[in-house]
Specification:
Elements (H helix, E strand, L loop, with lengths): L3 E2 L10 H7 L1 H4 L10 H20 L7 E4 L2 H15 L5 E5 L4 H13 L2 E5 L9 H7 L4 E5 L13 H11 L2 E5 L11 H4 L3 E5 L10 E5 L14 H4 L7 H15 L2 H22 L6 E3 L9 E5 L5 H10 L2 E2 L5 H4 L6 H5 L4 H5 L1 E5 L6 H18 L1
Helix pairs in contact: 1-10, 3-10, 4-5, 11-16
The chain binds pyridoxal-5'-phosphate.
């Protein structure tokens, strides 16, 4: 039987149309966007078009879109790009449940002299806006809090945090890698100064992302060399990747409501099917019940080891994850669930299932049956 892939928050197949649009930029239109001849101008125009598509998806000018190699680089450029401008002095506010691309970048800031506050979260994974306000000091220059969590899907109170940052005159960065392309984001309403995006989470190619930067924000580059991306990110642009990213964003945004509703129906179906096979106390959903992404569901199966369950699921042809993609290989307990204080048993037994438009209802029904069989056997 065909394996069932339920780990789309880690990686998802490319949208065939986005792939088709990027291929000619590897063969026919191979010019360097910095070249002044027609080949170069053709590549430059394609990059500019992608920039506009991504800006339009967030309801801002394409001028604000700075292309990077992915979410990790975008997070690092936002955090270190601002801190370096300030001579690595001052104070930054973040949350304990951030992706490691933010957390480890902040830990490096501390080594370089910046003070960092790691805010706690409640049992659903949300920070309290009031605690963000209270953490602000006269030397705070950045609040970096993710839009939605990659392990639980919990969405942070973005508008409230944006408002607090604006009132205090502090820059606000959000890692929207998991949220972008799944829920609508109006950057003007959000009030974020910097937003990290990644193409490969939404059917674009791996190795390309963007940092959307407010007009007045000045960043110290991480890379030195040419004047690409208005001298903020040196290096020849990944033209095919950027074209694929722009294409998938254009294709997704026009059908966002439809995509969201379908993903939501898959999530509901998975929980309904599990409830058919297992007693209520055999599984517990981690995260916020309503303020959450539609395509990620984090479920603990108390008494079962996530590691054993994942291995058995893999043998039975079901691919899921524990914790984030980056930590699942190292089998460390999830820092996200630990910060939510869900209890050691829930942390040990948590599995993340994540879906995409290519996931079918039949796959969900079969996966639920396989999961329930193993859970019953191991409890
Ligand atoms: C929330 C979040 N931020 C950042 C990243 C890193 O993105 P990339 O793989 O494009 O470097 C990921 C990827 O798992 C993510 O889920």
């Amino acid at each position: 039987m065909e394996p069932i892939y339920l780990d789309h928050a880690a990686a998802t197949p490319m949208h065939p149309e986005a792939l088709a649009r990027m291929l000619p930029y590897m063969t026919k239109h191979y010019g360097n966007p910095s070249s002044i001849h027609s080949f170069g101008r053709e590549a430059l125009a394609a990059v500019a078009e992608a920039r506009e598509l991504i800006g339009a998806a967030l309801k801002v000018s394409g001028r604000r879109v700075l292309f990077t190699s992915g979410g990790t680089e975008s997070d690092n450029l936002a955090i270190h790009g601002l801190a370096a401008r300030r001579g690595y002095a001052g104070h930054v506010i973040t949350a304990k449940t951030e992706h490691h691309a933010v957390l480890h970048a902040c830990e490096r800031l501390e080594e370089l002299g910046v003070q960092v506050t790691y805010l706690p979260v409640d049992a659903t994974g949300r920070v309290k806006p009031e605690e963000v306000r209270q953490a602000i000091r006269p030397d705070t220059f950045l609040i970096t809090i993710m839009y939605a969590n990659n392990e639980t899907g919990t969405i942070q109170p973005m508008k409230e945090i944006g408002q607090i940052a604006r009132e205090a005159g502090v820059l606000f960065h959000t890692d929207a890698v998991q949220a972008f392309g799944t829920v609508p984001i109006d950057l003007n309403a959000l009030g974020a100064d910097l937003v990290s995006l990644s193409a490969h989470k939404i059917g674009g190619p791996k190795g390309v992302g963007a940092l959307v930067v407010g007009e007045k924000v000045v960043l110290q580059p991480l890379l030195y060399g040419g004047t690409q991306e208005r001298s903020r990110r040196a290096g020849t642009e990944n033209v095919p990747g950027i074209v694929g990213f722009g294409a998938v964003v254009g294709l997704t945004v026009s059908r966002l409501a439809e995509k969201r509703a379908y993903l939501e129906s898959l999530r509901t179906l998975l929980l309904e099917e599990l409830a058919k096979h297992l007693p209520q106390e055999a599984f517990h959903v981690n995260g916020h019940p309503s303020e959450r992404l539609p395509h990620i569901v984090n479920i603990s199966f108390p008494g079962v080891s996530a590691e054993t369950l994942l291995m058995n699921l893999d043998l039975a042809g079901v691919a899921a994850a524990s914790g984030s993609a980056c930590t699942s290989g190292s089998l460390e307990p999830s820092h996200v669930l630990e910060a939510m204080k869900v209890g050691a048993d829930c942390v040990r037994s948590a599995i993340r299932f994540s879906f995409a438009p290519v996931t079918t209802k039949q796959e969900i029904v079969r996966a639920a049956e396989i999961v329930a069989t193993f859970v019953r056997r191991h409890t």
